Amino acid sequence: HIPIHPNAGDELALLWNYADVLNILWEFNSTVLAYIAGHSHEGAYFYDEKKIHHLTLQAIVECELDTNAFATIHVYKEYLIIQGIGRINTYRFDLLK
């Protein structure tokens, strides 16, 4: 739920020990392809130097009454599709960059 990269969300909402967690993910960047979080009202995206996609989804708390907001992740060999509904945007992450 909490962003772990300073360029992928509000710095005030970052995990307190985000640098420690990033270092662990970077050790396994051949298997960790994306980190998806919430906790940012406007959402954010950053592709880091270790080729990990960092996505912070838009806050569903900002939705109009009686509306939906969610995402479904479709996993393919060469890319991910995060298909957003309502307030949530749709994204495509190429995995072979």
TrEMBL record:
InterPro entries found in the cross-reference section: Metallo-depent_PP-like
Gene Ontology MF, one: 2',3'-cyclic-nucleotide 2'-phosphodiesterase activity
Q: What is this protein called?
A: Metallophosphoesterase
Q: What is the phylogenetic placement of the source species in the record?
A: Eukaryota, Metazoa, Spiralia, Gnathifera, Rotifera
